[in-house]
Amino acid sequence: MDVTTLAVALISVGGTLGGTLGGAVLSERANQKQNERTDRQRAEERNDRAQQAKRDLYARLNTTARSYRVAAQDAVRAAERGEDVEPAALEAAKEAWSEQYSQAQMVLAKDVLDVASALNGALGVGYSVVKQLPNSPDPDGSYDRAKAWFSGPLSDGVYLLRVTLRHDLGVEVEPDFERIRMQMLATLDSERRNLERLLASEQNQAARSA
Predict the structure, then answer these.
(1) Is 167 exposed, middle or buried (0-12, 13-18, 19+ CB in 10 A)?
(2) What is the pLDDT of residues 84-94, one digit of tens each?
(3) pLDDT tens readout for residues 34-69
(4) pLDDT (0 to 100) of residue 8
(5) How confident is the model at residue 134 (pLDDT cuts 50, 70, 90)?
(6) pLDDT digits (tens, 9 = 90+) for 79-118
(7) Do 169 and 112 contact (CB within 8 A), yes or no?
(8) Which of 14, 55, 70, 133 has the fewest beta carbons closer than 10 A?
(9) CA 61 to chain CA mean position, Å
(10) 69 closest CA partner among 145, 157, 199
(11) Residue among 130, 188, 158, 127 at smallest CA distance from 65
(12) What distance in Å separates the CA atoms of residue 197 and residue 194, rounded to the nearest whole number?
């Protein structure tokens, strides 16, 4: 084999190897890009599922809070009219809210949880208000107080929860919302504590009279 033939053979082998290696590199790059696209798609799908689960939970939380308030309010009105109050509806509403609130405690951000927790306490006081109506030393005053609670502070609390959830989801944007949220939250907590003290005082009076 002369020099020219050897050179041609070497060039041919080198070209074949170079083409093979180049093809392998290009194939590896294509696979890497495909894997990256697949990873991004999976991450987006996981994020979409998480967001949908969050929206579903928020919707249930909002719905059960409203239903609990309405059920308690209906019980007060029925009792005031002298009708027999069926406790099943109120108990079911209370249980539904408790279940959703328990789930929400595991996933809510702190600012949202603060509102949900305050509302949970306010709903609990409202439940006590309804239960104490039959033994109240001042029935007329107690009915007025109960109606005022459910249509006033507690109604504001349910509204605050709904708006807070919408802000957290990015559905509603109010630049001054944080200040409003803190103000409404403080008012709800203050009203709840005042009502708790009043109910405790009435319970003590009833116990001493018994």
Answers:
(1) middle
(2) 777 899 999 99
(3) 666 665 666 566 666 767 888 999 999 999 999 999
(4) 45
(5) confident
(6) 888 887 778 999 999 999 999 999 999 999 999 999 999 9
(7) no
(8) 14
(9) 6
(10) 157
(11) 158
(12) 5
Q: Virtual CA dihedral for 137, 138, 142, 144, nearest 10 degrees? A: 180
Alpha-carbon gap, residue 96 to 60, rounded angstroms? 9
Give me 83's structure tokens: 């009708």
Which of 60, 138, 154 lies closest to 103, judged by CA? 60
CB atoms within 10 A of CB 169: 14
Please give the single-letter amino acid code of residue 162: R
Length of the chain: 210
CB 118 within 8 A of CB 157: yes
3-state secondary structure the chain: CCHHHHHHHHHHHHHHHHHHHHHHHHHHHHHHHHHHHHHHHHHHHHHHHHHHHHHHHHHHHHHHHHHHHHHHHHHHHHHHCCCCCCHHHHHHHHHHHHHHHHHHHCCCCHHHHHHHHHHHHHHHHHHHHHHHHHHCCCHHHHHHHHHHHHHCHHHHHHHHHHHHHHHHHCCCCCCCHHHHHHHHHHHHHHHHHHHHHHHHHHHHHHHHHC
161/167 Cα distance (integer angstroms): 10
Joined tokens for residue 104: 């929400």
pTM above the 0.90 mark?
Answer: no
